[in-house]
């Protein structure tokens, strides 16, 4: 009689973790855009502001190894966030909703340009 063993590896958990991260980022963006009050609004919105541009830039960096791509993507996400904040402050149009919407729009444009390149 043969027993069925469950083999768990890191590769099996990657889609699950990616889905959980995408869900958390979307919930953070919705909390900020709909102005809902919650104790997790701040951390989830901050996670969205870093994860959305990082995921979009990661598609441009397919040739790098995992750690190099992660470091470059997070660095680019911080640059995008700072540029959006600087532009909004310079134009005197700062708002949380506007910042989240601007970062979402820029991230979408970066991601779609990476898809169009392929």
TrEMBL record:
<keyword id="KW-0472">Membrane</keyword>
<feature type="transmembrane region" description="Helical">
    <location>
        <begin position="99"/>
        <end position="116"/>
    </location>
</feature>
<feature type="transmembrane region" description="Helical">
    <location>
        <begin position="16"/>
        <end position="34"/>
    </location>
</feature>
<protein>
    <submittedName>
        <fullName>Uncharacterized protein</fullName>
    </submittedName>
</protein>
<feature type="transmembrane region" description="Helical">
    <location>
        <begin position="70"/>
        <end position="93"/>
    </location>
</feature>
<feature type="transmembrane region" description="Helical">
    <location>
        <begin position="40"/>
        <end position="58"/>
    </location>
</feature>
<keyword id="KW-1133">Transmembrane helix</keyword>
<keyword id="KW-0812">Transmembrane</keyword>
């Amino acid at each position: 009689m043969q027993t069925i063993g469950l083999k768990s590896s890191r590769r099996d958990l990657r889609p699950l973790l990616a889905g959980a991260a995408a869900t958390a980022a979307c919930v953070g963006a919705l909390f900020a855009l709909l102005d809902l009050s919650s104790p997790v609004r701040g951390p989830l919105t901050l996670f969205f502001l870093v994860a959305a541009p990082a995921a979009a830039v990661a598609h441009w960096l397919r040739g790098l190894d995992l750690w190099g791509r992660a470091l470059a993507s997070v660095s680019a996400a911080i640059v995008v966030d700072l540029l959006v904040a600087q532009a909004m402050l310079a134009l005197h149009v700062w708002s949380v909703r506007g910042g989240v919407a601007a970062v979402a729009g820029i991230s979408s444009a970066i991601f779609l340009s990476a898809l169009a390149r392929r």
